[in-house]
Fold this protein.
Amino acid sequence: MKLLHKMMLNLVLVAIPVAIGGVWLFYTMIHAGIQYEVDEQLSSDLLTMRQQFQRSGQYIGRINPFRVEIDSASLPIPATFADTTEFDPRENEVVPVRRLVVTVQASGKPGRLYRISIRQPVGEFNEIARLLSIGVTLTFLVLVVVLMALNGWLIRRLWQPFYQLIDQLRHYRLEIRSNSEHQPVSFSGSTTDEFNQLSAALNTMSRNLQEQFMTQRQFTDNAAHEMQTPLAILSHELENLLSIEPLSMEQMTGIERAQDSIRRLVRLNKSLLLLTRIENHQFADEQVNISPIVDELARVYHDFANHHELKWEYNLAPDVYQTMNPYLAEVLFSNLMQNAVRYSEPNAKVEMTLTPSYFQIQNPGTPLPFPSHQVFDRFIKNPAFPDSTGLGLALVQQIAQLHGMRVNYDYLANTQIHLFRVDFPKANLLSTNGYTIT
Amino acid sequence: MKILLIEDEPQLLSSMKAYLETEGYVVTTASTFRQGMVKTYDYDYDCVVVDIGLPDGNGLDLIRQLKTTHAQTGIIIVSAKDSLNDKLTGLELGSDDYLTKPFHLSELNARLKSVLRRRLFGGQNLIHFAKITINAHTHQVNIEGQPVILTEKEYQILLFFIANPDRLLTKGAIAEFVWGDHMDLANSHDFLYTHIKNLRKKLIEKGCPDYLRTRYGVGYLFSATP
């Protein structure tokens, strides 16, 4: 729910009970006031009549005769006010009436006892009270509507910087843009103190995040780099050791095993470095014809496939252009092909297709020993292949994401086929056949 | 052959120096950019192996200077960064080859030989090894005048063996030289074995003595001396 709507709702929720209570109170007070005034009028009439009775022993009739009834009474009763209704022949309808009934002792010895009933139609007064209430209610409603409109307008205006900040936050990305550009995003200030504080706090946070991010990135980068030299030394020393004659079989196989491990470390290190550099956007994109790249790799791996007794079939569309880094393109397709060769069983058939909109590679094989959604995760590997770095497919996904491509993995259980498919971004479809449209 | 090694890591420098000296090169070393600049300015070398990630200067500048003063010197760049840009810049400036750390010494040796061959004989020379003659330009292999038809991979394996004679070459080193990064495959050693088996068979068929010896399944030794 929007802030504006919340405020409006609260305003309405408060306004409605206040309006209902207020109208009721207003109506009651007006009613009470009118009744008081009417009763006072009746009492003053009674006083006049009582004075007349006491002075002259009879009623002279100065008051409107329709309003007064005089009977003789046997027992004295105190003054009693009552609300009733009565048929008014002049208006031809039943009207509400206020009535005062009392007994009066006339002068003389012994004075006669009269029962006096004075009445006052109050229909007009009620009408006034009703009109007043309606007037007040309407005014109140108008006031609420005006207030809401004003509030809405004010919120929209005053909160403008806030929405701007939200928009900036939404587009906020932690990344290393280029080598020298280390300026973090700066959030704009405003004339409102609160928003100024908010943007200042966001700026501090963004700076800290950026610094931490940079340190972390540099750490990975440096760590991977720093490892290259000791690895090179290790590998060289082992190589020099191997040239010492004579070596026993144990010594030699030991050295070879150590070299194998170094080679694994080097691969791992290179992949990690590559991942970091992809994340750091250190690769420039260009318009690349990927068909020859895929074709070349398909030939390189053809040998491997033959050695593994695999049928290696590929159907590649010519001149498929994509905006990507040529080196990364090579890594992407090469990793997918290696993957297919490695995890296929002998005599299986690996099929590859390249079209202007996608690249697909499929190979038969046993199901994955882990959930299929983890297939692109780092360091997730098949325990049957401990040599794997567990980074090849992670690199595939990272490279695809960088270039706006989507990689899907599917296992067709009935035919036992692993299927990897890279969907190229739609925008690039126009730029096939070498016609670059930008 | 005079070689200058410019590398800031002393251990790396000494292992490279030791290896190349046993190959019969006269090796001079420099461990800083300044030293490297002075030595390349003062003396003539047949080839300079330079690490471009030196702490006190950019190795690329060194290459620029070398190109103006000693244009005929061969240059091999060594870099810790597997960066395509550096590689392209280096090759554009006129370096002959580019190696990414870590590399095998046998690979450095093979590349060095190829650079020297190109530099000194314009690539037209023939490589002789006992009864084998190789034309590096046409990739033609002859055994006592008889041509041997080799596949590209077999040719490269043979070249690597001949560049590093009498040395134990591990399967991993050979595979890396021939296939580079594509060799990230399980049981790739098996794969290499089939290629070497074919190469050996082809050579013997043409009357070439078996120069190849296996060492406990760890690697191979290519030697003309029995």
Chain A is about 50% helix and 20% strand.
